[in-house]
Amino acid sequence: MGHPLYRTKCYISRVRQASSRVLLVYKNKFFARFAKKARITDADLWKTAQLANEGLIDADLGGGVVKQRIARAGGGKSGGSRSIILFRRNDRAVYVYGFQKKDLANIRPNELEAFRELAHVVLGYTNAEIAKRVEDGALFEVEKPEEENNAEKVS
């Protein structure tokens, strides 16, 4: 039967609330230029952020900074692009830096520290502050791909 605590309405409500949160995904100007040059689509970014949100993180660098590999179109992740994401689970993912593994093995310690400081600021933004950054063109929202929307309608 299970523990009676897990059958309470309060517990069920909390589980539903936690699972119904949608991860909001953004990219900054620098990353948008990188993604265009590397032919990374918003659908690729969306899927990569969702994998991180499910706990499939390539490298948690601490302080709200993760490094995630992005699969190449028609290829795998191993030779593809690397991204630095300011990330808070079930809340927000902001792509801020991208690089090809062939060009750069990893970021330097001073860069990591700067990304952690940036994460502290950006992940602390209110929804209104994020909306202002989008309005100003400093951030771009990564939209959920159509095939994801259609799959949810079928379910």
Briefly characterize the structure.
By secondary structure, this protein is an alpha+beta fold. The protein is built from six helices and six strands. It is globular, with a radius of gyration of 17 Å.
Shape call: globular
Main sheet? 6 strands, mixed
Counting helices, strands and paired strands, the structural category is alpha+beta
Poorly predicted spans = 1-20
Helix percentage? 40-55%
Order of helices and strands: HEHHEEEEHHEH
Strand order in space, largest sheet = 2-3-4-5-1-6
What labels would you give this structure?
single chain, 155 residues, alpha+beta, six-stranded mixed sheet, 6 strands, disordered N terminus
Written description of the protein model:
By secondary structure, this protein is of the alpha+beta class. The protein has one domain. The protein is 43% helix and 23% strand. The protein has helices at residues 9-20, 29-38, 42-53, 109-122, 127-136, 146-154; strands at residues 24-28, 59-62, 65-70, 81-88, 92-100, 139-141. The chain has a six-stranded mixed sheet. A hairpin with a 3-residue loop joins strand 4 (81-88) and strand 5 (92-100). The relative contact order is 0.17. The model is unreliable at 1-20 (pLDDT under 50).
